[in-house]
Amino acid sequence: MMETLLEVQGLNKSYPVGRSGLFGKRMMQVLRDVSLSVAPGEVLGLVGESGSGKSTIGKAVLRLIDSESRGMRFQGQELKGIAPEKLRALRKDMQIIFQDPYASLDPRKTIRATLSEALDTHGLHTGPARGPRLLALMEMVGLNPSFLDRRPHEFSGGQRQRIGIARALAVEPKFIVCDEAVSALDVSIQAQVLNLLADLRQSQGISLLFISHDLSVVRFISDRIMVLYLGRVMEVGPADAVHFTPRHPYTAALVSAEPSLRHESRRIRLEGDIPSPLNPPTGCVFRTRCPYALPACAAAVPELRPAGEGRMTACIRDDILQENAP
C-alpha cells in the first residue's frame, strides 16, 4: 500500500452570507464531502472552473482557514483540533506558493530579509550558515545571488514567482500548495516556472498540491488529477488517463475546451453558467449543464465509484464511461 503524507476525509467548508435573519445567517457551502490523499513525492493536481473550491481546499489543508472534516492527517498527525503550538511547528513542513507573487511579498523588504524571516521563524540556518543558505536558495530557483538586496518592485512577474518559490523552499518543507502559481504569468514564463517546480520535485522529493483552472498545465506536472465542480469531486485518476480518456462528462468538456487545431467538431459546449453555491442543483450538481443528463441524475448525489485502474468517477452514466474507455 502506498505511504500517505497527507490524507483528508470528508472535507466541508461553508461561509455565512448576508445578514442574520429570524433563523440565523444563511450559509453558502463551497466544499462538499471532499476526500483526497497525497503520497510522499507525489503531485496531485486540482482542476476546475472558478468557484469550484480549489483554493479553498488548499487553504483548508494548511489550516489557513477553519473547516469541517471527518479527518485530516499530515504525516500521521491529526490536524483537526491540533493545538496552535503544534500547528506552528508543522508549518515548517507545509508551505504555500500564492497566485500573485507581488501581493504576497512585502514591498518594503529586500529578498534577503524576506527569506531570512522564514528561516528565523523556525530557527534554521542561523549564524554563519545563513549566508550560504540564502545563496543556495537563489541558485536553486535560477536567480542571481546578487538580487538578494533588491526589493520586489525591481523584478519581473516570473522572477517574483521564483522568489515566492524560494521562500516556500527556505524551510525545507515536505509539502507545498501551489495555488494558481503560474496563472498570472505569460505562457513562456509559465513553462519556465513549471519546469522549475518539476525539477525541484525530483531533486528535493517534495509533494505538491497543484491548483489550476488549466487542465493541460495540471497534466504536465501532476501524477494524479482531481476534477472539481461546485465543491464536489467529479473524477480522480492518473493524469494521462484523466486527460486522454475522461470518465466524467465534465472532465470531457474541460478536455474538449483546450485549444487545438484538430477535433474542433468534438468540442463539448456547456450551456449556461456554473450554478450558485447558494442554490446548487439537486442530485448531481453538474446535471443542469450536462449534455448526457437523465431524470435520475436529479434524484440523488452520485458517489465516487471505481472507473478503471486507479480511477474514480461520480457519474451514473455507465454508457458514457464505456464510450470514453481506452
Read across the widest sheet, the strand sequence of neighbours is 6-7-8-3-9-10-12-11
Query: What's the rounded overall pLDDT mean?
Result: 88
DSSP strand content: 15-25%
Dominant shape: globular
Distance between the termini: 26 Å
Domain count: 2
The secondary-structure element order is EEEHEEHEHHHEHEHEEHHEEH
- Structural class, please? alpha/beta
CATH homologous superfamily of the largest domain, by name? P-loop containing nucleotide triphosphate hydrolases
How would you classify the quaternary structure? single chain
Strand segment tally? 12
CATH topology of the largest domain, by name, is Rossmann fold
Q: Helix fraction?
A: 25-40%
What is the alpha-carbon Rg in Å?
21 Å
Question: Low-confidence spans: pLDDT under 50, at least 5 residues?
Answer: none
Return the CATH class of the largest domain: Alpha Beta
Please report the number of helical segments: 10
Q: Please describe the biggest sheet, giving its number of strands, its sense, and whether it closes into a barrel.
A: 8 strands, mixed
> What's the architecture of the largest domain in CATH terms?
3-Layer(aba) Sandwich
Written overview of the protein:
The chain has 326 residues and is an alpha/beta fold. The chain has two domains: 6-222, Rossmann fold; 249-326, no CATH class. Helix content is 29%, strand content 23%. It is built from ten helices and twelve strands. The chain has helices at 54-61, 84-90, 111-121, 130-140, 157-169, 187-204, 215-221, 239-244, 249-256, 318-323; strands at residues 6-21, 24-38, 43-47, 71-74, 77-78, 94-97, 175-179, 207-212, 224-229, 232-238, 305-306, 312-313. The strands form two sheets. An eight-stranded mixed sheet has the order 6-7-8-3-9-10-12-11, with helices on both faces. Strands 2-1-4-5 form a four-stranded antiparallel sheet, with helices on one face. The longest helix is centred in the middle third of the chain and has 18 residues, at 187-204. The mean pLDDT is 88.
